Sequence to fold (832 residues):
Amino acid sequence: MTSPQERKRKVTGPVIVTANRLRDGAVIYRTLTGDWSARLEHAAVVTTAAAAAELLAAAAADDIAAVGPYVAPVRISPDGRPEPGNLRESIRQAGPTIALPITSGI
Amino acid sequence: MPLIRNGQITQDRFVRILDDAPLPDGVPVIVPGARFLADADEILRRDAAVGVLWPNDRRVAELEPYLDRLAVIILVFPTFKDGRGYSQARLLRERYGFGGELRATGQILRDQFVFLVRAGFDALEVVKAADADAFAATLARYSVFYQATNKGSPSAARHRVSRRSLPASGEAVH
Amino acid sequence: MYLYDQFDRTLISERVAEFRDQVARRLSGALTEEEFKPLRLMNGVYLQLHAYMLRIAIPYGTLSSNQLRMLAAVGRRYDRGYGHFTTRQNIQFNWIKLADLPDAMADLASAGLHGMQTSGNCVRNITTDQWAGVAPDEIEDPRIWAELIRQHTTMHPEFSFLPRKFKIAVTAAAHDRAAVKVHDLGLRLRRNGAGEVGFEVMVGGGLGRTPFIGKTVKPFLRKRDILSYVEAVLRVYNAFARRDNIYKARIKILVHELGADAFAREVEAEWRPIQDGPLALDPAVIADIAARFRYPDYARLDDEGPELASHRKADRRFDAWLGNAVANHKVPGYAIVTLSLKPEGGPPGDATSAQMDQIADLADRYSFGEIRVGHEQNLVLPHVAQRDLMALWRALDAVGVATPNVGLVSDIIACPGLDYCSLANARAIPVAQELTRRFRDLDLARDLGRLHINISGCINACGHHHVGHIGLLGVEKNGEEYYQVTLGGRADEQAELGALLGPAVPYAQVADVVEEVVAAYLELRECAGETFVDTVKRLGVEPFKERAYAPH
Fold:
């Protein structure tokens, strides 16, 4: 996938704004209350380019909490919750698709 | 925008004339490189100091005939990531022997101070006042360098070979 | 083994203090991300999909056992207990927290390790042959030159804000194990007609979006001139390469656009005035650096001959490993042992902290405390007495690093890909894992012979797919992962870029296509001795294409 920051902003479906937390790099999602959550279900979902731009601008201004915010597509589940809209976002939400070494007790 | 010269925050005694306006008498001025070259002999006849603001995409060799008469050369860092000014600085100091004030302007931030000073700049137009205040402390971050600097300090490789010339601990090697 | 002195250690610890200050200013908001990003990159700190990633330099791929133990400890203390060895002889930790980085770097610094210049637009880790200093076919140890250049280009005031990254590799053997022809600056130690040793200098090689094989700009450079010449190359690059477009900012583009001859002339013009200045290397300086490389106090041993032969007869698995992972050493009675980090089903190039500790102990016991990292993402114990090979093998087998697949089809080179990397278009690791399962049969792997599969998850080519015998490049098509297949690439002294096989293949089919290509090779090869890459050279890709894309 071309970097989301590089892609021109064309909103053709529901989108969210996501970034990485400054302190530890964890995946976070911009919420409706101008905050960040580690849970995708708390993400603010918008559907127009204008709303996405506004959400992104606010996120980008929050430089001290989050790094590299961008607009990402989501799918809406039958019970109305946002789910990752592409493979990249699935991997960001759920972690690498490969088994990580079992390292407890090492 | 604070100006640091030789480690001190100072007033800039030079006036920048960036357009075609006539150069005021008796005032040290800085003019852009293109204007200077078009009229160098005339400009240098004036009775006050002359400096040049030189773009980072022209060879500094073009200034060679005038170096002994230029009081200051300002080199430009349009963004701090654009490092062409460092090469220009070293050439001016080390190849052409420029002895006047060598000033850096543009996006000059704290984390470039050590590189700028070691490349030969003795004056910096610093973007943030907080960075200017921290100048001395920032330079003191590093006491050892692998490369010979423009001030003639031997490189680390030579320091090892001639161990008697190792700097005293804590002494900055600039 | 280069021994750091007070100078080296002071520089690293001052760097850690500076970074600690920079992180604090970033966390407090005194630095924006735009201002901070180049600073963290200069210390090897990337932001990836899930977390920050720390890339730690392993200068010319040489590690002491204490350093390997420190890497294990950092992985345990600050990360998730495993690391990844890269195609540039570095190591990466994938889960590190920014707030922890200053402490992690302080720990690393105590062992002489750092992440300086493993990222950013500066001179990166200088890589070399993982058999440097022990290979029978080398002229002299290239690491001395790598160290000299490393020092000179570390925190260089003029070359810390280059147009783009700059990668240097050095080789000293006729058979190039360091891929110098696909580096920004490739140096090959060689003899001239008079028997003098000097450098062939190649500039403008590189992979990525626009791959190039490097051009020879100076067929023979005297040793004394190496630093001044490197300085001149970097100065020309710094001054004239493009800065308007990051995809055109590498030196390979400058060399291509100027032409190799015009580029060489620019370098000469910069070089002549400084050739005899402070950068001229006098023999005392060279000797001093060389003296800081400690070589083992090798015992006087004979080659093992009959005893090894009887071990081989007695144990098939030991025999397979010996024939595959053990190479001749320049000192009689010794051997070079490669540790495969490519177990069946494993992510290529990864090792757990536990494994690192175990390997460090084995290095102490069997390799004079020294380990090497190769760009093919395996480790090496470079000083093993042949009489210890049986005992060592048993121990390596227990650690899980004795798969006898070195240089074979299942010894796959892969970047982290979309499972980790924010630049990626597609995953690389699961493709590699599947391929190791398809080719788990070691008899088949031995029959196929030398066969390098390289997988990159995007055009940045960190998996070096352009120079793979079989290269796989992950691309995105309509939100799905596809792979372009190339054949016939080589990274060695006969360096060549692979040729495209045909249309990109979806994720679900890529392992099948690779199996078909391999099956085609078995049918098409002239004899068992003709390697895969030689068959492709002889026949081109057409016969493979027919087979790979035939409906099944």
Notes: Chain C has four domains: 6-110, 134-291, 310-399, 413-549. The CA atoms of residues 61 and 373 of chain C lie 5 Å apart.
